Amino acid sequence: MLNAVTDQAIVKLGPHGEVVRWSRGAEATTGYGESEAVGRSVSVLHTEEDRTAALMEQELESARRNGRREFQGWRVRKGGERFLAHITLTPVRAEDGAVTGFVKVFGDVTESARAESLFHGLLESAPDAMVIVGQDARIVLVNRQAEALFGFERAELVGREIEVLVPPRFRDRHVGHRSGFLADPRLRPMGAGLELSGMRRDGTEFPVEISLSPLETVDGTLVAAAIRDVTERRETEQRLLRQRDEILELSTPVIQVWDKVLALPIIGTLDTLRATRLTEGLLEKIARTQAEVAILDISGVPTIDTQVAQHLLKTVQAAALMGTVSIMSGVRPETAQSMVHLGIDMGRLRSRNTLQEALQLALAVLAERAGTAATAARPLMSGDSR
Amino acid sequence: MTDDVVAVMKIGDTLLVALQGDLDDTTVIQIEEQLTREVARTGASGMLIDVSRLSVVDSFIARVLARIVAMVRLLGAQAAVVGIQPAVAITLVELGVQMGHLDTALNAEQGLALLERLRRNDTGTDRP
């Protein structure tokens, strides 16, 4: 019967550790045959150092005094190769209670120990905080990074529900989401598209990114959560957005050149985003200064194509709705040619070659509007945007 | 007599009308009745319609404004729209709402000057 078990070595020892029975499993595990082993001290499996330290005697003594012992230790095969053994040592007693021998059951756990230490090594060396959670949502395992990130000691986290790391206002929802994940466990980022927050021991919150993956183990499916603090990245993103806004702001200045006259020197290519910003900037400035004339200077725009013209026209129309007249300036001869060739129709928008001429026109418009120079302004009326 | 739905102020021979809140079809009809009545009663030569306190200005409101302006013109007065806000102007342009036929001004003061110019044009006496 003993020989039916081959993945576990089963050995019967005499009271001093001498081998009495040697199973086939023992032969397979250690390399020693039954004939070689029986009669010898089982310390033949010990390492040189352990033999010197009389480890076998200590083990037997401990089992004799305390009953069944279970422990792990390094052993040596016949060929000299070491293996990690998981050992159960049970004393066999006579009716009077005297120990007449021992039963030693051991197996080679080198592989699983290696896998486990590899797993722990991976867990600890991962750049992200890792929290492993069981089916009941209680924390099974955390790594050092998780301790550092959340400010909890390992012992404080293990056994607690995962929600201890979630800000209170999200906890109810989180309970629902985690049940959903357990119903269909697969590798995926948590809360795709949402801005997730974690909570430290001291109650402070920080933005996180979390990736979830199921871990199949003998204890059932666990969930591994890799948690990354994205505070810095969020800040960088926001700084970039701010800087982009500032650059747009800088690239679309609106200058008050005269009482009730604004000028917009447009420099560079006019794309939709810039055009929108330009229009907004101009209209806000109009609302603030109550300017009646806006000069759009396009001398800094390399090419006026249909799209750019469309943007300019929209700006002009929006300004007109508020009651402000627009004048275009800085049209170069080649620009004028290409605009007409492209069939661009700027409507009744008045245009001047230079900013100086545009400003003169603006002042004439203002004077006419104020009714003080009716005669000078008369020819302008026909071209007014109304 | 119908209830007044909008406040109308008279400055000289100009009426100042401030439209507010949400306008629905019924209110619009009442406003048209009230404004045409007021122009006829006072003999005003101009009307400024302030839209700065309308919660929404869309193509519907644009049509309403055009209608009011047309009615006022038929009664022999000039009308202009004042107080279109920047966001509203952008929205109207993006929606492609045609408002080119409307006369607009930034504020009541500039609106009065605009009405003055419109009246001069209308009388035709100083046309070259």
TrEMBL record, chain B:
It holds the Pfam family STAS. Residues 4-115 form the STAS domain. InterPro entries: Bact_StressResp_Reg, STAS_dom, STAS_dom_sf. This is Anti-sigma factor antagonist. It comes from Wenjunlia tyrosinilytica.
